Amino acid sequence: MPLDTSAYSLALLRVDGRRWNELRRIHAQIRTQAAADGSSYLEMGHTKVMCVVNGPSEPGPRRGGVATGGGGGGGGGQSKNAEVAVNIVIAGFSSVDRKRRGRGDKQVFELQSTISQALAASLHTHLFPHSTINISLHVLSQDGSLLAALINAATLACVDAGIPMTDYVAACTAGSTSTYAANDEGADPLLDMNHQEEQELPGLTVATLGDSDRVAVLVCESRVQVSRLEGMLAVGVDGCKQVREILDRVVREKGIKMIQEGTVERGVGLNDMELD
Amino acid sequence: MPITILPPKAFREPPRNLHHDSDDVMSDASSDSEDSDSQPGGVSLDSGETIHPRKRRSAATTSGSTFTKRPKTANITSSISVPRSAIVTPGERITTDPQWMRGHGTYLSSATLGEQAITSSLAGIVTRTNKLLSVRPLRARYTPEVGDLVVGRIVEVQAKRWRVDVGSTQLAALPLSAINLPGGILRKRTETDELQIRTFFAEGDLVVAEVQQLFQDGGAVLHTRSLKYGKLRNGVFMAVSGTGGGSGVVRSRRQVWTLESANNGGPIDVILGVNGYVWISKHVDPVIPEEAKNQQTGITNLEEVVSATMYSSQNDRIEPETMREIARIRGVVTALVENGLRVDEDMVTKGYNEAVEMALVSEGGPEDVYLGGERGEQLAAALTGRLA
Amino acid sequence: MPREAEPSANEKAFLLKALQDEQIRLDGREFDAYRPLELTFGDEYGVANVSLGKTKILAKASAEVTVPFADRPLDGIFTIATELSPMTAPHFEVNRPTETEVLLSRLLEKTVRRSGALDTESLCLVAGQKCWSVRVDVHVLSHDGNLTDAACFAVVAALRHFRKPDTSMENGVLTVYTPAEREPVPLGWLHSPFCVTWSFFGDEGETALLDADWMEEQVRVASVTISLNRHGEICQIAKLGGVPVEAVALLQCTSVALTKVKEFSTYLDSKLAEDAKRRDKGGFMAELRAENDRVVG
């Protein structure tokens, strides 16, 4: 199904009616699973993922050689940093083609490794020697920007689990309206690509640390002119900052609700800080 | 190479977070991230309208039906307005003033971004002790402190110690030298004890213990050198969240007490481990054999006698009435946690009394111990009403 | 699984101190300099032997006629297989892919296959029935860091060097000719992508190095692999986590990478030309021409 790119140049509207710099609706919740240390549910448009974090905790004696779930950021076992183990399950019904993914799927392995290493750089793993932070992600529905949604959900769940971190790792995708062959200067960068756009147009996934311009993850899997990169990266980094604000709002609202309900006592407000 | 992009059209700023606005009061209605199924667009960037808390609150209250099903607790407390600045989130700067010292939950942001600032690494609330600033997380795993009473589960037996799961980030250690050995408190540890280590505690046993000391890296060392501590039997275990943050067990005056239960249940022991692990069991008086009673019972002698049953894993006979009341207390604790209330002696006792009364008026009669769902909410509402 | 021994704390500190305070690498290279890259072709077509310092990689391309995939009847099959055996380093095991191996094979896949370097449609012989299956086996013979760049170079070199047997279709009969009957033909090649890997050091990844050796790889805090061709098209970028790096620095890395890729491209072209000349002299064609030139003496 070729994407009708001519429509964009006429109305400057994308297939789903967004403008170039608009994110899709992001809806997120934290503390969705009572049994876990931390959990989250995140929707970016029609991409829907759930995340559960258990730990940091020290694995007991290993019985019968349990295989670790995926990429180990920072090494496990008796190291002086906590290991971040990520496990991704992609539901068979999550995409249109009902593709079954085996355990040894390299693409899933790469996703796990990426998320593990990206979070390990932000989480203060040195505080938890010998421990493992188990992050389990479930993909319920896919409509583009999968890696970005997974990173955002994992970040939220880690915040919920109370694991100290430098800052949020927020991610989003950016694309370009030009195909790789067309070297037109008028091509616009696009923010937050959906599945259809990902199929047709070049794009990349960016994750940044907090409010800074520092890029934790940059994955580009399509052919694109090198001159397009700067624009796409700029839009992507800006999008990450927007995503960070959204994630931050979700956490704050949950915290304020807990204070209102009396679960947590109020602390010293930031404004009282300067008094003495 | 600076990053610049020329926008093809006017770029509308997304609604930026307003958390620097201290008087931006979040109402309860606008913070219902869980209820947004009924309110589409909980967080939307695509529209030009920024989120107006007041506007959304009025919309929510006029529609009315959204909140009728909510527990009363929320309505009671929703009158308290909480400024957004009450919460700090990861990456938020707390202060750049160098007179403060940084405590848990904070780090010093790097100097390359200007002056060094004490920055939060958690979502939580700021607390200060003299010049020490720390952030208490909204929720986290249990962090052990010396003197804490904890309930734990043996997960590994090693040569001279046990590894105990206490719900912390690391397993705690219980050295063989830190338990009461059968045959008196002053007995010296021998090699035979090391060989028989599993006869004291084996994998899967539950223990109540005290944190004796902490390692540099945060690991805890436990001890059970008191008659109050040791192996647990005759009851049920439950895990709620501990003092790491959020609701659950809080540190209080008494973590262990005996409750005289209703409906012929007899006395019931409740142990609220500071780590969030709870043990509810039938109270068993130390069995003192007749011949021992007749003798002059000194304290060491009593120890000796008691320690014979100390490491038994056999449950005593428990009457159905007692079991029912144990289940009722368990239901009370669950209801407290589910409704975000703290778990301590006061709350559990009051909650239990309330539950007994509720059972009397319910269809099932006094034998009805169900405290889930609406019954739990009802219980919580009654408790908060009374306590407020 | 035997774990690889990490460099000792002392060694790490030494390397980082030299790098950050003195701006010196252990082997004295410039930050943006590669180790000597050498390429030799085997006697057969499609064998490329690449060495980058002490890193040695052998890539062998081969082709056979098979049935195309049912969902892609007009495309041939192209696979890249990577092999990291215990020969490379003791912690690699046979039949259990390590993280290094999976990520390497994904990177090669994205760089060469997904970017469309090889024209898979030209591998089709009879639509839906017969096609060429081209396979490149990458064997890592010695691992001293920067496998990605060396492996990618080897794969591209092997494929560009490779000749598949010539075929013809006449009246529905497919004939595959042996090299003696007809000179084998090169693959339909569209562009040559190369990987350039930057490694970052320091708390905020402020120091960037090209072509890190094994020691540097173990100490680095983040890395980014950028695949480009000499026309300035990005085929793939992979910064899979690690310490965050300034976006501007990444853009600079990309532009430096482009100049490196152009150097690779020129080097490969000259090597291919050299090899073609060598083969031409004593090759089959020369033999034929020698007959015509024979002077009766």
TrEMBL record, chain A:
<dbReference type="GO" id="GO:0016075">
    <property type="term" value="P:rRNA catabolic process"/>
</dbReference>
<dbReference type="GO" id="GO:0000176">
    <property type="term" value="C:nuclear exosome (RNase complex)"/>
</dbReference>
<dbReference type="GO" id="GO:0000177">
    <property type="term" value="C:cytoplasmic exosome (RNase complex)"/>
</dbReference>
<dbReference type="InterPro" id="IPR027408">
    <property type="entry name" value="PNPase/RNase_PH_dom_sf"/>
</dbReference>
<feature type="domain" description="Exoribonuclease phosphorolytic">
    <location>
        <begin position="22"/>
        <end position="164"/>
    </location>
</feature>
<feature type="compositionally biased region" description="Gly residues">
    <location>
        <begin position="62"/>
        <end position="78"/>
    </location>
</feature>
<dbReference type="GO" id="GO:0071051">
    <property type="term" value="P:poly(A)-dependent snoRNA 3'-end processing"/>
</dbReference>
<dbReference type="Pfam" id="PF01138">
    <property type="entry name" value="RNase_PH"/>
</dbReference>
<dbReference type="InterPro" id="IPR001247">
    <property type="entry name" value="ExoRNase_PH_dom1"/>
</dbReference>
<dbReference type="GO" id="GO:0034475">
    <property type="term" value="P:U4 snRNA 3'-end processing"/>
</dbReference>
<dbReference type="InterPro" id="IPR050080">
    <property type="entry name" value="RNase_PH"/>
</dbReference>
<comment type="similarity">
    <text>Belongs to the RNase PH family.</text>
</comment>
<dbReference type="GO" id="GO:0071028">
    <property type="term" value="P:nuclear mRNA surveillance"/>
</dbReference>
<protein>
    <submittedName>
        <fullName>3' exoribonuclease family, domain 1-domain-containing protein</fullName>
    </submittedName>
</protein>
<dbReference type="InterPro" id="IPR020568">
    <property type="entry name" value="Ribosomal_Su5_D2-typ_SF"/>
</dbReference>
Automatic annotation (TrEMBL), chain B:
<dbReference type="GO" id="GO:0071028">
    <property type="term" value="P:nuclear mRNA surveillance"/>
</dbReference>
<protein>
    <recommendedName>
        <fullName>Exosome complex component N-terminal domain-containing protein</fullName>
    </recommendedName>
</protein>
<dbReference type="Pfam" id="PF21266">
    <property type="entry name" value="S1_RRP4"/>
</dbReference>
<dbReference type="GO" id="GO:0071038">
    <property type="term" value="P:TRAMP-dependent tRNA surveillance pathway"/>
</dbReference>
<feature type="domain" description="RRP4 S1">
    <location>
        <begin position="141"/>
        <end position="213"/>
    </location>
</feature>
<comment type="similarity">
    <text>Belongs to the RRP4 family.</text>
</comment>
<keyword id="KW-0539">Nucleus</keyword>
<dbReference type="GO" id="GO:0000177">
    <property type="term" value="C:cytoplasmic exosome (RNase complex)"/>
</dbReference>
<feature type="domain" description="Exosome complex component N-terminal">
    <location>
        <begin position="87"/>
        <end position="129"/>
    </location>
</feature>
<dbReference type="GO" id="GO:0071034">
    <property type="term" value="P:CUT catabolic process"/>
</dbReference>
<dbReference type="InterPro" id="IPR036612">
    <property type="entry name" value="KH_dom_type_1_sf"/>
</dbReference>
<dbReference type="GO" id="GO:0071035">
    <property type="term" value="P:nuclear polyadenylation-dependent rRNA catabolic process"/>
</dbReference>
<dbReference type="InterPro" id="IPR012340">
    <property type="entry name" value="NA-bd_OB-fold"/>
</dbReference>
<dbReference type="GO" id="GO:0000176">
    <property type="term" value="C:nuclear exosome (RNase complex)"/>
</dbReference>
<keyword id="KW-0698">rRNA processing</keyword>
UniProtKB/TrEMBL annotation, chain C:
<dbReference type="GO" id="GO:0035925">
    <property type="term" value="F:mRNA 3'-UTR AU-rich region binding"/>
</dbReference>
<feature type="domain" description="Exoribonuclease phosphorolytic">
    <location>
        <begin position="34"/>
        <end position="165"/>
    </location>
</feature>
<dbReference type="GO" id="GO:0071028">
    <property type="term" value="P:nuclear mRNA surveillance"/>
</dbReference>
<feature type="domain" description="Exoribonuclease phosphorolytic">
    <location>
        <begin position="192"/>
        <end position="258"/>
    </location>
</feature>
<keyword id="KW-0689">Ribosomal protein</keyword>
<keyword id="KW-0698">rRNA processing</keyword>
<dbReference type="GO" id="GO:0000467">
    <property type="term" value="P:exonucleolytic trimming to generate mature 3'-end of 5.8S rRNA from tricistronic rRNA transcript (SSU-rRNA, 5.8S rRNA, LSU-rRNA)"/>
</dbReference>
<dbReference type="InterPro" id="IPR001247">
    <property type="entry name" value="ExoRNase_PH_dom1"/>
</dbReference>
<dbReference type="GO" id="GO:0005730">
    <property type="term" value="C:nucleolus"/>
</dbReference>
<dbReference type="InterPro" id="IPR036345">
    <property type="entry name" value="ExoRNase_PH_dom2_sf"/>
</dbReference>
<protein>
    <recommendedName>
        <fullName>Exosome complex component RRP45</fullName>
    </recommendedName>
</protein>
<keyword id="KW-0963">Cytoplasm</keyword>
<dbReference type="GO" id="GO:0005840">
    <property type="term" value="C:ribosome"/>
</dbReference>
<dbReference type="InterPro" id="IPR015847">
    <property type="entry name" value="ExoRNase_PH_dom2"/>
</dbReference>
<keyword id="KW-0271">Exosome</keyword>
